[in-house]
Amino acid sequence: MAAAQQSVPQELLFAARQFASYYGSHPVAEVPGFSSREFGFMFFDRGYVHRHVGFNDRADLQKYLAGKAPSHAYYSTAYYEMPAAHTMAEKGWLGADLIFDLDADHVKGSEGLPYEKMLARVKEEMIRLYDDFVCSDLGFSEKETEIVFSGGRGYHIHVYADSVRKLGSHERREIVDYITATELDLGILFSSTVVDEARSGRPLKMTKLPEISEGGWYGRARRAMDSLLLELQSVPKEEALAMLVSSGVKKQQAARLYSALFEEGRKDRIQTESVLEVLTDREEDIRAFTALVQKRTVLTMAGQTDEPVTSDTHRLIRLPGSLHGKSSLKVVTLKRDELTDFEPLRDAVADFPDHPVTVYSEKAFLSEPVGGESVPVKEGANEIPLRTAIFLILRRKVRLQPPGGTG
Fold first, then answer.
1. More confidently predicted of 339 and 48
2. With bands split at pLDDT 50, 70 and 90, how would you rate the model's confidence at 288?
3. Are the CB atoms for 76 and 37 separated by under 8 Å?
4. For the purposes of burial, counting CB atoms within 10 Å of the CB of 38, is it exposed (0-12), middle (13-18) or buried (19 or more)?
5. E strand map for 112-242
6. Any idea which fold 2-181+305-347 has?
7. Residue spans of beta strands (DSSP E) within 132-226
8. Is 264 left (phi over 0), alpha (psi -120 to 50) or beta?
């Protein structure tokens, strides 16, 4: 072990000691179906996941955490007859929770943001995923769900309902497709019905647009359509035409669409009748407009989540109450009313001893507000609170020795 430790950076050995001390006095959260779960761990001195571990009770798990001080702790979303068996066939799969994972890598608009603002952007999208899809469209109650801050760059939603436990990967992937509007067909949402053929000798079609208040993708498509019309109406004609062309509409067709929608007093008819009836002179224009609405719907209304996590029925997920090995922040379970005001850099900071640590930096910067307090770090030696030191060490921003020192 001594030889192995010599090759491990001093900073990681320091972090491991702090993690071990923390686990010695801070129990992790309860996990439903504990004895049927597989556990897995990563460590500061090795680069692979040690999995196929099972525990009889939380006391055994806590002893393991305090003694081994893993950098990351996970448990299976699945339930098994023999969770510690080394092959999936031997484990005996009994079912799995439904998991939604939202990480900064999957959230539009979080690219390049500072850590604190990135977390705020991901939380904003998580609230929409939970409220609009998991609870509203999919119909799960708060009692059947749990929101978890991952300790790093995102959140998970756990659904414990019996109705999802036996779902296979294909069914779970279809749920993701619904949330992300994959292969959304607005031809179904904006369907036409033949109501009369007598007057003209050809079918007369009527299209009933969804109401804004309708649930699911019906209401979303209508809201997306209305926002598109409002945006086109609110700018000069030349700019609106340019917007249509940039969205893939040909120039001549863009001019026809604009004329049909907004000229000759037709904009009032859009509200009282149907925008598609205004365009019935040309079927190709209806198809072009429907394609525009579809793009707008997917762009502005689709939910975001990581499909491989949801569809994997043997997934390992972060253990609530454990520490994240790249930030030292806690993996925190939350109810919906707690999520709105939850601030990870304030509410997920581990309770480390309150004493200063000397660290070294190659440049000056202002630290993230760990525990609500940003610390100015200067080039060279700095004496900073332990909680901030561990956070910055694990994010590779400071070291325990000056540049050029051995670690």
1. 339
2. confident
3. yes
4. buried
5. 145-149, 154-159, 192-196, 204-207
6. DNA primase, PRIM domain (3.90.920)
7. 145-149, 154-159, 192-196, 204-207
8. left
Q: Quickly state the pLDDT bin for 193 (edges 50, 70, 90).
A: low
Domain boundaries, the chain: 2-181+305-347, 186-301, 352-407
The upper half-sphere exposure of residue 382, i.e. CA atoms within 13 Å in the direction of its Cβ, equals: 25
Structure tokens that stand for 159 in this block: 């659904």
Gap between the terminal Cα atoms of the chain:
16
Q: Residue 370's closest CA among 393, 388, 350?
A: 388
Single-letter amino acid code for the residue at 407: G
Q: Quick: pLDDT tens for 299-352.
A: 999 999 999 999 999 999 999 999 999 999 999 999 999 999 999 999 999 999
pLDDT for 199-222, tens place per residue? 555 665 556 677 788 889 989 988
Residue 218 burial (CB count, 10 A): 17
User: Which are the catalytic amino acids?
Assistant: 101, 103, 306
- Cα separation of 62 and 55, whole Å? 10
Strand partners, 399: 360
Three-class SS of residue 263?
coil
Element (H, E) at 99: strand 98-103
Of residues 367 and 407, the one with the higher pLDDT is 367
CB of 61 closer than 8 Å to CB of 55? yes
- Residue in 224, 228, 195, 191 with CA at minimum distance from that of residue 208: 191
State the Cα–Cα distance between residues 137 and 133, nearest whole angstrom: 5
Amino acid at 136: S
User: CA angle at residue 37 from 27 to 84, to 5 degrees?
Assistant: 110
Exposure string of 352-389, with b = 16+ CB inside 10 Å and e = fewer, is beeeebebbbeeebebbbbbeeebebeeeebebbbbbb
pTM score, whole prediction: 0.88
Distant-in-sequence, close-in-space partners of 169: CB < 8 Å, separation ≥ 6? 311, 312, 313
Residue 407 has pLDDT above 80, yes or no: no
3-state secondary structure of 13: helix
Rounded distance between C-alpha atoms, residue 319 and residue 49, angstroms = 14
